[in-house]
């Protein structure tokens, strides 16, 4: 089936997400010559306009191609683009089109993606909570909300306890971060995994000081402890702490993921199907991790189509640690977009059996919330921060 049309669509609403960049979704609708329709999702961040335009450019390479030939189509674009693995805009565009292609293939064959990839190894996906700590500043704020989260059945939660500290941290920052983590540990008990998000913003020395302060609370992992491209710093960090490192949300290709895994720089890999190359690249990255005793916890911070396809891949991942989950902190419209077909129950999501990405798309929501891509305003609290945890801090 030849691809006839590829349409990028920006969705946004007055009802916002828990982080600024999560308030918008960029989705892609792929239509074949015989009228089959599939959906994918791309990453918004601060680059809504450039991603929207990148999808239009990448589409030129996919229109007229056989939708089933996902491997060939990916490599054809890799060859054309030249800078593919260096361009987030291009890889997220390819990823979204690839996801939509798999959606179409699954729908044509009447099979969910997990069946096309060898079948599921589990029926329910264990998830961890993120996005739950909006407006938390004091240790008590964090403890109170953490208690509510575990009450609903979550066995793991992630948060960033470092407020507006950036690049380096001082004694006050260390003490306050420790206090937040200490009270959360006390609030949730010892059977819940506490996952520490650094958002890739510290130099190695500060990250090492943080690790030493927090190790007594047994964090499940330390995520992106140093700046993304600081491989020297990451090596230094690895040499100075035994804590497990999680990273992967900014990896843009199979080779890049292989490098981190094979160099022993990561314990828990967090590939994001919406920018690493979709299902086509994602399925082999899982295998690279598995062969090297690295667990997988897909990065899943944007929208309900990303969530749906990552549930499918989590179902086939033997070495799955957890799937990230914002679902309970999504604005309602994101749940409505997939008819709320993937709710979290008792810290798990049931793997849906519908074909393709496993959920149906509510076209009415698309028509209601479709928006022009516009530049986002730059405000003090960066787009990746869970709202209200930075600007109210008072440094
Ligand atoms: O691991 C993650 O989920 C990412 O680092 C981010 O996507 C943020 O957590 C999100 O922006 C909320 O702050
Ligand atoms: Mg992260």
TrEMBL record:
Enzyme class, first EC level, given as a word: lyase
EC number(s) recorded for this UniProt protein: 4.2.1.39
InterPro entries: DgoD-like, Enolase_C-like, Gluconate_dehydratase, Mandelate_racemase_C, Mandelate_racemase_N_dom
Residues covered by the Mandelate racemase/muconate lactonizing enzyme C-terminal domain: 139-244
UniProt GO MF annotations: gluconate dehydratase activity; metal ion binding
Reaction catalysed by this enzyme: D-gluconate = 2-dehydro-3-deoxy-D-gluconate + H2O
UniProt keyword Metal-binding present: yes
Database matches in Pfam families: MR_MLE_C, MR_MLE_N
Keywords tagged on the record: Lyase, Magnesium, Metal-binding
Keyword Transmembrane on entry: no
Family in the record: Belongs to the mandelate racemase/muconate lactonizing enzyme family. GaD subfamily.
Protein name: gluconate dehydratase
Biological source species: Saccharolobus shibatae
Higher taxonomy: Archaea, Thermoproteota, Thermoprotei, Sulfolobales, Sulfolobaceae
């Amino acid at each position: 089936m030849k691809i006839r049309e590829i349409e990028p669509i920006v969705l946004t609403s007055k009802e916002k997400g828990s982080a600024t960049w999560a308030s918008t979704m960029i989705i892609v609708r792929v239509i074949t010559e015989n009228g089959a329709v599939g959906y994918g999702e791309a990453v918004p961040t601060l680059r809504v306009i450039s991603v929207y335009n990148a999808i239009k450019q990448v589409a030129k390479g996919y229109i007229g191609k056989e939708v089933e030939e996902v491997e060939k189509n990916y490599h054809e674009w890799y060859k054309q683009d030249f800078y593919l693995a260096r361009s987030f805009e291009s890889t997220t565009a390819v990823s979204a089109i690839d996801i939509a292609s798999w959606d179409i293939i699954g729908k044509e064959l009447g099979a969910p993606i997990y069946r096309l990839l060898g079948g599921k190894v589990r029926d329910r996906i264990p998830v961890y909570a993120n996005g739950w700590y909006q407006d938390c500043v004091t240790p008590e704020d964090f403890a109170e909300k953490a208690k509510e989260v575990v009450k609903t059945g979550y066995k793991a939660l992630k948060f960033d306890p470092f407020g507006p500290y950036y690049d380096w941290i001082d004694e006050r920052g260390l003490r306050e971060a420790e206090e937040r983590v200490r009270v959360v540990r006390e609030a949730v008990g010892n059977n819940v995994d506490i996952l520490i998000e650094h958002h890739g913003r510290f130099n190695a020395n500060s990250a090492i000081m943080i690790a030493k302060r927090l190790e007594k609370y047994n964090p499940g992992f330390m995520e992106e402890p140093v700046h993304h491209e600081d491989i020297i710093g990451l090596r230094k960090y690895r040499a100075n702490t035994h804590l497990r490192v999680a990273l992967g949300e900014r990896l843009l290709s199979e080779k890049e993921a292989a490098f981190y895994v094979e160099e022993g720089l990561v314990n828990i890999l967090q590939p994001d199907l919406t920018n690493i190359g979709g299902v086509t690249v994602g399925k082999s990255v899982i295998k690279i991790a598995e062969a090297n005793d690295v667990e997988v916890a897909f990065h899943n911070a944007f929208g309900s189509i990303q969530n749906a396809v990552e549930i499918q891949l989590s179902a086939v991942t033997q070495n799955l640690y957890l799937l990230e989950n914002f679902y309970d902190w999504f604005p309602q419209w994101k749940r409505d977009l997939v008819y709320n077909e993937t709710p979290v129950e008792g810290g798990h999501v049931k793997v849906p059996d519908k074909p393709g990405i496993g959920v149906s798309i509510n076209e009415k929501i698309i028509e209601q919330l479709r928006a022009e891509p516009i530049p986002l305003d730059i405000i003090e609290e960066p787009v990746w921060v869970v709202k209200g945890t930075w600007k109210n801090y008072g440094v």
